[in-house]
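PT: before anyone asks, these are the final sequences, not the draft ones from last week. 520 residues across everything. Please model them as a single complex and drop the result in this thread when it's through.
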Amino acid sequence: MTPVWADPINYIIRLLRELLIGWGLPPDLTHFVMSLLGGFLLATGAMMFVIFLIWYERKLIGRIQDRLGPNRIGPWGIFQPFADMLKIFIKEFITPAGADWLPYNLAPVLSVGSVLLIWAVIPFMVSVYGVDLNVGVLYLIAAGGFGVLSILLAGWGSNNKYALLGGFRAIAMLLSYEVPMVICLLIPVMYAQSMSMNTIVKAQDVWFIVTAPVAALIFFITSVAEIGRAPFDLVEAESELVAGYNIEYSGLKFGMFFVAEFLHAFTVSLLFSILFLGGWRGPGAEQIPILGFIYLVIKTFVVYLVVILLRGSLPRFRIDQMMDINWKILTPLALVIVMVTALVDKAVSGLDSLIKAVILLVINLIVLYITSYLLKQSSKRLMARKVVSEKRPVAVYRPEQS
Amino acid sequence: MLSDWLYVGIFFIIALFLPAAAITIATILSPKKPNPVKNSIYECGMETYGDTWIQFKAQYYIFAFIFLVFDVEAVFLYPWAVAYGQLTLFAVIEAIIFIAILLGGLLYAWKKGCLEWN
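LR: through. Structure below.
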């Protein structure tokens, strides 16, 4: 029996359930009410958390670009997002002429909804999770696909050509990045022998980023692409598509896309830390569940920091480059790493788990090295051809004759 | 098991309800002063020209085909991955041959030029 302070959420749940049953509610109805309440709290909490995330990211991006970031309202500008939120709530909705009503209005709702859906299966501590689906990983992929659909709806419904181009690009990205993500997620499933998120966390005696670094890398790249951030932000490229799919949105409808983007970025960091960094696991997390939550938050913020750093430092890819990265690098690499991992893991299945982890790590690093070698070779060929075949303008300095 | 999906169903409704409610509140709070110029489509100051709702490029069709192949493949591979612990080496090699055939298909599509975006 854990003390109350170690597991406060479960304590409250138990208390509430006993209270409801004490009022004479049948158990089925009690379960329903508890689910409703839990879901509502989780979803509201996630949406409120975005306010903090927006401040955090603006501040960090500001520092990266040698600015101060928000610094006026409250200490370190921490209340800036509240002011922004109040303002955006009373802005006018401008619906463009000839917009398709249903897709136009459904898109912002669906974009937030699809991200919130993922939170249903996330295990926050050893005892607190929304639901432990036995097809959790497939559920994640399905919910991720929803978000891209909302971008297509927005692009199609706005009756604007830039928005439509953004929608087209979103579809191209969905078509490409889903495949390596699905394939590389096979490896955690293979190690844990289950698709449930809880079992995957519990199976990580050795973090999966050690035993499957290549799969972790592929998952990270594809999930950054899925959230549509820099360097993969070509669905909302400001400089070429004006703002892409959300060009015709104003007021809170635009705000919803904004919330969805930030929440999705945090959610994929959360997923990465659950699938590859051991989730809530850490010293003492089984006995004191609240400690596990703290570990999870720390890990997630480390991953989120990397996502923000990528956004702050990399230029945008062109669409053909993006398709090349996906179909010619990530997909073959994912297929090869699944084959290699399956074979090696089966061949060394009798050994001690630590030795097994070392062998898998070495094999992964070898595959990574071969990949980078091949990439270097092909990029050399590419550069050489370009330089030789094309005539380049040369600036010549001629002093004026006088 | 069924109660798990009940929770997901409830969560789905909540996840759609929350943003919809926020937008509804904002609709009530916000001013409503539309006029034809404000509501016109924003395309960098130019008058919009021609029909927006055009057909997708045919190239998407090829990519969608390849995408479909690999997604269906994933459906076959997930049960294999879940059962991985109980499988013999022979079954694993069989699955590897299956993946290798797909990899061959990908390489074929690559050689055929299906993966070039232009």
